Amino acid sequence: MSAVLAAESAPVAKPLASPIAAVLLGTGVVGGAFLKLLNTPAAASIRLVGAANSRRQQTRAEHLADRALREKLKSHGDMRDDAALLAALDANEALVKVIVDATACGTLASRHAEWLGRGYHVVTANKSLAGGDLAGWRALQAALAQGGRYGDSATVGAGLPVISTLRRLRHCGDALLTLEGVFSGSLSYLFNQYDGSQPFSVLLRRARELGYTEPDPRSDLSGEDVARKLLILARCAGFALRPDEVEVESLVPESLRGVDLETFLARLEELDEPLAARFAEAKARGGALRFLARLNQRGRARVGLVEVPANHPATRLYGTDNQFAFSTTRYNTQPLVIQGPGAGPEVTAQALLGDVLALA
Ligand SMILES: NC(=O)c1ccc[n+]([C@@H]2O[C@H](COP(=O)([O-])OP(=O)(O)OC[C@H]3O[C@@H](n4cnc5c(N)ncnc54)[C@H](OP(=O)(O)O)[C@@H]3O)[C@@H](O)[C@H]2O)c1
Known about the structure:
Structural class: alpha/beta
CATH superfamily of the largest domain: Dihydrodipicolinate Reductase, domain 2
Number of domains: 2
Order of helices and strands: HEHEEHHEHEHHEHEHEHHHHEHHEEEEH
Strand order of the largest sheet: 4-3-2-1-5-6-7
CATH class of the largest domain: Alpha Beta
Number of strands: 13
CATH topology of the largest domain: Dihydrodipicolinate Reductase, domain 2
Helix content: 25-40%
Bound molecules: NADP nicotinamide-adenine-dinucleotide phosphate
């Protein structure tokens, strides 16, 4: 075993009074990867004092230290009760108390501002608040103005330094002129692969089997997740947009939006013809199709399928890579481009960890 692997798998002794006490909400794909990172030396300053899935939670130290915590929470533990998790944070002597939200739960996200107001920090992969309705976002800004800290790196681009870069540019007096990119790993994969040689539905089935799409691929194809990310970035850039101000082109035909998942999967071929026609038109003009998010200088935001020239930066993506191209007053001849894996449990959990460590 290499030295690095040995270090990663060895139990890490936590100091009795760790500088950071954390509660983890969500022990799914990302939360599970975060739990693994907590057992690495990099996280030695963090003490986990509570963890929960949607139905159960654990606050007892001996159970939280169990490597099988994630599995055990599926059948053992106390019933869900946010108050008991917050009480576990309160009972800890740590100076920094943080709630890590690794869920997609809107109800939990709607409590972030309240938690910040009560003196806890929040670190989140959950986009529902920062990318949700304007009132919620404004409540978040108001809570942050009172001094809480909100780690939101993982909400856009997974582990890529997208939000932090945008904030840093603005902090230095730079202003965003345009933002353009591919913000979805699954849509990146689908259009990187789609060359007309096989039906789109075949690629979509493969992407689903590979775990690149959500179990219900309409969550990806609707463009709504990309729209939420664009909304978060637009707001970071100074445009306090409402969700309905982001124009979204869904790739899900009207007739397939209301049907159950099984029916949708059985009728995937209905996606093929319209996309094949658009692909053929683009190809005839020497172009390619990419699912892009765009924001312009006036705050106009759009998400949808775009015909791009063959030499467009988005045509040089691989696999499920994301791309974020910022044109700013200072990056105005060539955009500043951030590109790389924009999904995946390890990199997303690492973004959460980075935000938690930055609190100390
Ligand atoms: N997967 C990625 O690559 C990725 C990348 C960037 C961002 N994200 C974001 O990260 C978040 C988590 O994604 P994921 O892929 O880990 O999802 P997931 O595997 O479906 O896990 C979600 C977890 O949240 C739990 N949960 C739901 N409601 C809860 C509640 N009220 N209280 C406590 N726990 C609750 C679920 O509990 P049960 O197990 O009981 O259902 C589950 O453990 C999402 O917001 C996602 O958009 C994911």
